[in-house]
Design a protein that fits this description.
By secondary structure, this protein is α+β, with helices and mostly antiparallel strands. The protein has 2 domains: 3-120, Fructose-1,6-Bisphosphatase, subunit A, domain 1 (Fructose-1,6-Bisphosphatase, Chain A, domain 1), CATH 3.30.540; 129-249, D-Maltodextrin-Binding Protein, domain 2 (3-Layer(aba) Sandwich), CATH 3.40.190. The protein contains 7 helices and 12 strands. The strands form 3 sheets. It has a 7-stranded mixed β-sheet with strand order 1-2-3-4-5-6-7. The chain has a 3-stranded antiparallel β-sheet with strand order 10-12-11, with helices on both faces. The two termini are 29 Å apart.
C-alpha cells in the first residue's frame, strides 16, 4: 500500500458518496476491506461497488506506467458495470454487461480519451490456438504456468503489469488471452471484477478453466484457481485444453 493508493481510494469513496448520497449500494475497496469483511461471510449487499484504487502498485512505484484504477458494480455477485482507467495511456474503458438472457439490451464497451472521444473495443480476428497472443504477468509466474503455456503451444507472449492493463491489450486487439493460475496468493475480487465486466461487455469471455463463472462477494475475496480471460471465439477450446493440461501438470489443482 502506498500514499497514492490511499489518496485515490479516498477520492473515489468521497466522489461516489457525494454524487449518489442515497443510492442503495455498498462500497468495498481494497483499502477498506480489512475493516469491512469477515472471513467466510459475504457482505449484505444486493448492489456492491468493488474498487481497486491502484491495481499494480509495484509498477506505479517502479515507474513502469503499467498500473490501473478499477471500479466495478456487482449485482448479486456478478459484475454488471466496469470501469478501467489507464492513466499513463490516457485511456478510460467502460463496460456495460448485457443482462443474462437479454437480446434487446446487448452489452457495450468503449474507450474514452482525455478529450472525451469514444472508440469501440477492437478484439482481434485471430482464431487458431497457435496464432493466439498471450498477455502474462511479469511478477506472478511459477513453474506450473510455464508448463501450461508450453502445453498450449500458443503464439507470441507479452508481459505487462496490472490485470486492467492486461485486459486492455485484449480490448485493443493486441493480445487474445490472459491466464491467472494461483492458490493462496490469488488475485482478489477488486483485481478481476472491473476488467471482467469490460471484457465481457465487449464480447469477450472470462471464466474458470472448467467453464464456471467468477463469483464475487461470496465470503472469500480470493479469485483462486485457473482463470482464463479471452477475446471469446476460442474460449471453450482454451478451457478444455487448459483443464486437460492441468490434470497432468498438477492433478490436485482446483480449477
Amino acid at each position: 500500500m502506498s500514499a497514492a493508493d490511499l489518496a485515490v481510494n479516498q477520492w473515489l469513496l468521497d466522489g461516489l458518496t457525494a454524487a449518489y448520497p442515497h443510492a442503495p449500494w455498498t462500497l468495498l475497496s481494497e483499502e477498506t476491506a480489512k475493516e469491512q469483511l469477515t472471513p467466510g461471510q459475504p457482505l449484505d449487499a444486493e448492489w456492491l461497488w468493488i474498487l481497486d484504487p491502484l491495481d499494480g502498485t509495484k509498477d506505479f512505484l517502479q515507474g513502469t506506467g503499467e498500473y490501473a484504477v478499477h471500479l466495478a458494480l456487482a449485482h448479486h455477485g456478478a459484475p454488471v458495470l466496469g470501469v478501467v482507467l489507464l492513466p499513463e495511456l490516457e485511456q478510460l474503458w467502460f463496460g456495460l454487461v448485457a443482462p443474462a438472457g437479454s437480446t434487446e439490451l446487448p452489452g457495450r464497451a468503449w474507450c474514452e480519451n482525455r478529450a472525451g472521444v469514444q472508440s469501440p473495443a477492437r478484439l482481434s480476428p485471430r482464431r487458431a490456438l497457435r496464432d493466439l497472443v498471450l498477455v502474462a504477468s511479469r511478477n506472478h509466474r511459477d513453474q506450473r504456468l510455464e508448463q501450461l503455456l508450453e502445453a498450449l503451444a500458443l503464439g507470441d507472449t507479452r508481459s505487462i503489469g496490472s490485470v486492467g492493463g492486461k485486459v486492455a491489450t485484449i480490448l485493443r486487439g493486441e493480445t487474445d488471452l490472459y491466464i491467472s493460475l494461483s492458490g493462496r496468493s490469488a488475485p482478489k475480487d477488486w483485481d478481476m471484477a472491473a476488467p471482467e465486466a469490460v471484457l465481457r461487455a465487449a464480447g469477450g469471455a472470462f471464466s474458470h478453466a472448467d467453464g464456471s463463472p467468477l463469483v464475487y462477494n461470496d465470503g472469500d475475496i480470493r479469485q483462486a484457481g485457473c482463470l482464463i480471460a479471452s477475446h471469446g471465439p476460442a474460449h471453450q477450446d482454451l478451457c478444455r485444453r487448459v483443464a486437460a493440461a492441468m490434470a497432468v501438470i498438477d492433478p490436485d489443482f482446483a480449477l
